[in-house]
UniProtKB/TrEMBL annotation, chain A:
<keyword id="KW-0677">Repeat</keyword>
<keyword id="KW-0408">Iron</keyword>
<dbReference type="InterPro" id="IPR017896">
    <property type="entry name" value="4Fe4S_Fe-S-bd"/>
</dbReference>
<feature type="domain" description="4Fe-4S ferredoxin-type">
    <location>
        <begin position="25"/>
        <end position="54"/>
    </location>
</feature>
<dbReference type="InterPro" id="IPR017900">
    <property type="entry name" value="4Fe4S_Fe_S_CS"/>
</dbReference>
<keyword id="KW-0479">Metal-binding</keyword>
<feature type="domain" description="4Fe-4S ferredoxin-type">
    <location>
        <begin position="150"/>
        <end position="179"/>
    </location>
</feature>
<protein>
    <submittedName>
        <fullName>4Fe-4S dicluster domain-containing protein</fullName>
    </submittedName>
</protein>
<dbReference type="InterPro" id="IPR051555">
    <property type="entry name" value="FDH_Electron_Transfer_Unit"/>
</dbReference>
TrEMBL record, chain B:
<feature type="transmembrane region" description="Helical">
    <location>
        <begin position="75"/>
        <end position="92"/>
    </location>
</feature>
<keyword id="KW-1133">Transmembrane helix</keyword>
<feature type="region of interest" description="Disordered">
    <location>
        <begin position="1"/>
        <end position="22"/>
    </location>
</feature>
<dbReference type="Pfam" id="PF03916">
    <property type="entry name" value="NrfD"/>
</dbReference>
<keyword id="KW-1003">Cell membrane</keyword>
<feature type="region of interest" description="Disordered">
    <location>
        <begin position="316"/>
        <end position="335"/>
    </location>
</feature>
<keyword id="KW-0472">Membrane</keyword>
<feature type="transmembrane region" description="Helical">
    <location>
        <begin position="44"/>
        <end position="63"/>
    </location>
</feature>
<keyword id="KW-0812">Transmembrane</keyword>
């Protein structure tokens, strides 16, 4: 075990024992260009044969998926906001008015149809393929494993449905499939990327909101994109999960967001539970010693 | 709907002045949970009890045998095996794929408390099983009658050595999750579970042993209850907003019932030492207390995962503290 096996910056594939591992692969999901088409959700289901997860009207904007689950490995979040921070950055003054006919220009460019302060936030969420993956750490069967690409995958022929990975994920991604009993989540299309293909969701994305590639390159591209947006006056653009010194050692799938993470259903400061595992075992050891001492005292002590 | 969520952290209800005052509101995605509540059923809460009972009984048996108290030895050995069989049932029944239970034995993985626990439980099971079967030696034919007792004694002490690990690893199992109130309680959970295990083992002794042998069980009850009550008090009062799930709803009711039954059981064990009936009732009360405490801790964790405020508010507070300390905050606008 190297120094950072439980916590801190790390290249996960070599740490897991891969020799001559290829570069770490991942996703950069740029929510500023997501149009909410859900092509990623559909492509993922089609490629991975993920079953239907019910037809529910949730009353949460255009989102009737609800969140990531055993049967949804990509999930597009929809948030409708008024009083958006950059509502008047690109357009003219806001106010209720007749919107007129649809224009051909970008919103706000046409003085007859000025931009309002309303905005959509749309984000395609996915498993983060953490550097320090809580699910993988706690899996007692070895079903979850680290691939040569640095991703985290469940082996469905090994999983016995113990369910431990599910509360261990700081993002609430992995889930048990009810009629099947096993745990399921995004594989980053392990079967495609091994053949040099892009994952199904990234391939289907029509706006390049979902970008697949070598993680180091994606991180550079994302930093450029944030700087570009800041230059355009979109000051609320920020990266999420890109930092190798964060609580999970950086995500293999990271995001560009336009609001606080919790608005999208993401934890603001996730930390892999296993970071504290050595301290937990020490506490358990102390409690065990206290138990032993209590028994010795009970049996050797005088009559009460 | 993200600003001023209707499920914002207002209205703290019970227990007015806690050290940390959460922000008046927090933001979330339609109030949906962020971390996923465990999919475990109450099988696992029941296992927390039976696993602890097996550990406490094994310690009772070893102490009883070492100090010449055959009733404690016999009751401890037999209860340990019975609780172990129940534990195995609960654990396998809770699996999504019970027929694959043996996949637990493919690996031994120090980062997985469940993997470590599987091996602890397996070793304990072998030792406790032999020691319980040895109780039947007098009924068996010649060679077995001579061979079994020494094996049973070895198994009994082996099980006693493993018992503290069996009783406390389950605390690590729950704490090593992103479930907010379980993780926050990691320093105290092993003490609660260890104390609860001792108290339940003592309960078995109080029920099974005549007053002449029950002295150690009474002392074990007092010490176990002290650990359990102290740990639970810490968890319910020092974790800021993450103490809240342990004081409310079903978890709060379980834990209050557990505390009342513990106090009742200890009082009966100490004051009723001359009466076999009062002692037995105290023992039953301690067993029920241990069960209630485990269900309370289990339900408290589940409740903390189901409401996003227990994920968002403590993490926001952590970010704010880090910003105050001058360390880089992680979701800066100027990335």
């Amino acid at each position: 075990m190297t120094g950072n096996s439980l916590y801190g910056p790390l290249d996960p594939a070599p740490d897991a024992g891969w020799t001559d591992a290829p570069p770490r692969m991942g996703f950069f999901t740029d929510t500023s260009v997501c149009i909410g088409c859900k092509a990623c959700e559909v492509a993922c289901k089609e490629w991975n044969l993920v079953p239907d997860d019910g037809f529910d009207l949730l009353g949460t904007s255009y989102d009737n998926t609800g969140g990531l689950s055993a049967n949804s490995w990509r999930h597009v979040a929809f948030i409708e906001q008024r009083g958006a921070p950059h509502g008047d950055v690109l357009g003219a003054a806001a106010g209720p008015q007749f919107l007129g006919m649809p224009g051909r220009d970008l919103p706000g460019r046409d003085p007859d149809a000025p931009r309002t302060d309303f905005r959509w936030l749309m984000m395609s969420n996915v498993c983060k393929h953490c550097t320090h993956a809580g699910c993988l750490d706690v899996c007692p069967t070895g079903s979850l494993f680290r691939t040569e690409f640095g991703t985290v995958v469940v082996q469905e022929d090994i999983c016995n449905g113990c369910g431990y990975c599910i509360p261990a994920c700081p993002y609430g991604v992995i889930d048990q499939r009810g009629d099947d009993g096993r745990a399921w989540k995004c594989t980053l299309c392990y079967d495609r990327i091994g053949d040099g293909l892009s994952p199904a969701c990234a391939t289907a994305c029509p706006t390049q909101s979902i970008q697949y590639g070598e993680l180091s390159q994606l991180r550079e591209r994302a930093a450029d994109r944030v700087a570009h947006l800041h230059g355009q006056g979109v000051g609320e653009a920020r990266l999420y999960g890109h930092d190798p010194s964060d609580g999970v050692g950086g995500d293999g799938a990271f995001f560009l967001l336009l609001d606080e993470p919790e608005v999208y259903g993401l934890p603001p400061d996730p930390i892999v539970p296993t970071r504290d595992l050595p301290a937990m075992w020490r506490r358990a050891g102390l409690a065990g010693l206290a138990m032993a001492a209590a028994v010795v005292v009970s049996f050797l002590g005088g009559r009460p | 709907m993200s600003r001023g969520s209707p499920r914002g952290g207002r209205g703290r209800g019970r227990g007015g002045d806690r050290p940390m005052v959460p922000p008046a509101e927090f933001r979330s995605y339609y109030g949906r949970p962020i971390v996923r509540p465990p999919v475990w059923h109450h099988d696992i809460a029941a296992y927390l009890f039976t696993g602890g009972l097996a550990a406490g009984s094994a310690l009772l048996a070893a102490g009883g045998d070492a100090t010449g108290r055959p009733a404690l030895r016999r009751a401890g050995r037999v209860t340990a095996l019975g609780a172990l069989v129940a534990s195995t049932y609960f654990l396998i029944n809770d699996l999504g794929r019970p027929a694959r239970f043996h996949h637990m034995l493919r690996v031994a993985k120090p980062t997985s408390p469940m993997s470590m626990g599987t091996w602890i439980l397996s070793a304990f099971g072998a030792a406790a099983g032999v020691s319980a079967v040895a109780e039947a030696a007098p009924l068996l034919p010649g060679p077995l009658r001579r061979l079994l007792p020494p094996l049973g004694t070895a198994g009994q002490y082996g099980a006693a050595v493993l018992a503290p690990a069996l009783a406390t690893y389950t605390a690590v199992l729950l704490a090593d999750t992103a479930t907010p109130s379980w993780h926050a309680a990691y320093p105290e959970l092993p003490l609660i579970f260890g104390g609860s295990a001792l108290a339940s083992g003592a309960g078995v002794g109080l029920i099974a042993a005549p007053p002449s042998e029950a002295g150690p069980a009474r002392r074990m009850a007092v010490l176990g209850a002290a650990f359990e009550l102290y740990g639970a008090h810490r968890v319910e009062t020092t974790k800021g907003i993450l103490s809240e799930p342990y004081t409310r709803g079903r978890a709060g009711r379980w834990l209050r019932a557990g505390r009342a039954l513990t106090v009742l059981g200890v009082a009966g064990a100490v004051l009723g030492r001359r009466s076999r009936v009062v002692s037995a009732l105290s023992g039953a009360s301690l067993l029920a207390a241990s069960l209630a405490t485990r269900f309370g801790v289990f339900d408290g964790g589940v409740a903390s995962a189901a409401d996003p405020k227990y994920t968002v508010i403590p993490q926001r507070e952590r970010l704010a503290r880090r910003a105050e300390d001058g360390q880089p905050v992680r979701d800066p606008r100027a990335t």
